[in-house]
Amino acid sequence: MRTSLLRERLAAAGAQFRDRLGVEVVSHFSERRAEYAAVRDAVGLTDFSSVRSFRLPEDKGIDFLDGLLAGNVPKIRFGRVLHTLLADDDGWVIGDCYVANNDQEFLLLCESIVPDAELDAILEAAGGTEAGLEDLSPSHVLLSLDGFRSWEVAKHLFGADLLGLPYLSVENYSFEGKPVRLFRAGKTSEFGYLLLAPQAVAPTLFDALQAAVDQRGGRLCGVDVHDDLRLEGRFFNVHAEGRRVRDPLVLGLQWMIDFDKGPFRGSEAIQRRRAGGLKQKIIGVATEPGTDALQSGTAILHEGRPVAEVVAAGFSGVLNHALGLAVFPVELAFSGLTFRLAAPDGPPVRSLSMPPIMPKSLTVKLDEM
Amino acid sequence: MATESGLAASDPVRQTIDRRARIIRTFKDELVRRLNLPYTPEDLHEDVSLLGSGLGLDSLDALEIVLCVESCFQIKIPDQNIAVLRSINTVVDFVIQEQDRIGGRP
Fold it and tell me: CA–CA distance from A75 to each of A244, B39, B53 (Å)?
């Protein structure tokens, strides 16, 4: 099983580990609501080294990535990051990807729902070796700072100039003489920074981040709380709805796809389904406070008939009730409707507009601070 | 899982859907036209984030969305109310809420 280079430190800090597709991840450190509150009110530090990271030289990498991914890689401006997806040959989603145009290199971060060996085979078959693809996963850590005050921690370590970085950008910094690539990104709807750091400085960087996070009332987080945070922010979660639905069009991920560019992996199947018209759509659903939590796989009924199915479920700390995503036929995929959960006389479940919350970070302009 | 709504025209759910669908269609068509988006209106999921992630629109685009709502629905989004601009659906919620308020409906 692949483990994080920071495993000893994480274990010493109280990490509870679990397996995710043959990769060990930290599920949590403490109670889930405490980790949730840390991100919404302060800052959370999460080890996301389970996400695969790759480097490619710019000259060879551009065509390789553009033929592989759904987004338009040549259009990525210098210093910017593209959020796109990786599909299989049948056009089903298998990876949620960031691609960064960083100086003379492209960086690929791929959060995948296929085992490492399968992803490696896909990349190799697509010409990864010829494109100079270098797997950074064994030699780097990927740490995520998320939260209303995460910018304070990032500024503390790397200086005030990072406050000018726009969302979805990349910048190079140095920590103890080693290069650290910083992605201004995140999927919590609060400020977010991903730090890709080499093994040589991973432990000291982690210690410095943890100390700075502690000073600001934050805490270490596992990956599980990010399921709730992504759901509330209506960020695509490849490990939740992505694993159950797979069709990028039903998932509402058209914005990750350039339909006008040349062929990419799975493009023929995706274009064919697009031409046939959308039959189903994923939308947000919620139950009333105090009712049972939503569960993936549960049916949603209208007038006694099953019409939809819950495909992702979590809890909204802001709204204080269960929140989920469900796949409806397009004719019924509208917010503002009330259905029944699980049975004709089951508890009411409402369809709602997403994202249902207004994050604190949207009220702050970093470039004016 | 059912794939057809099978709702009668008299079904109140159908009426709610029809009203919302009309507003969504008008708003999406105008959004794609004004911002010259590289998508068809059908490609735009109603929950897609308008600013930052998702469509990745900037502050100038946000102003265009405000003008778009004003032009299509004769409804003004207050300057400081960026919460409305989270997604197409949140804009539509605001339009419905304002139509009901102005029209005196509950």
Answer: 31, 16, 17
Tally: H helices and E strands in chain A: 9, 19
Are residues B38 and A259, on separate chains, in Cβ contact within 8 Å? yes
Q: Give the whole-angstrom CA distance, residue A62 versus residue A56.
A: 8
Phi, psi for residue A91 in degrees, rounded to 5: 75, 20
- Rounded-to-integer distance, Cα A139 and Cα A132, Å: 17
Whether this prediction's pTM lies above 0.80 is answered by yes
The residue among A269, A229, A236 whose CA lies nearest residue A252 is: A236
Which residues of chain B lie closer than 8 angstroms to A283, CB-CB? Answer: 46-47
* Nearest-neighbour CA in chain A from B23: distance (Å): 12
Tell me the backbone φ, ψ of residue A159, rounded to 5 degrees: 100, 165
| Chain-chain contact of A337 with B82 (C-beta, under 8 angstroms) | no
What are A341's strand-pairing partners?
A300
Contact A197, A183 (CB under 8 A): no
**Contact yes or no for B89 and A168 at CB 8 A:** no
Helix or strand run (H / E) with residue A229: helix A224-233
| Nearest CA-CA distance, residue A98 and chain B, Å | 12
**Confidence band for A323, pLDDT divided at 50, 70 and 90:** very high
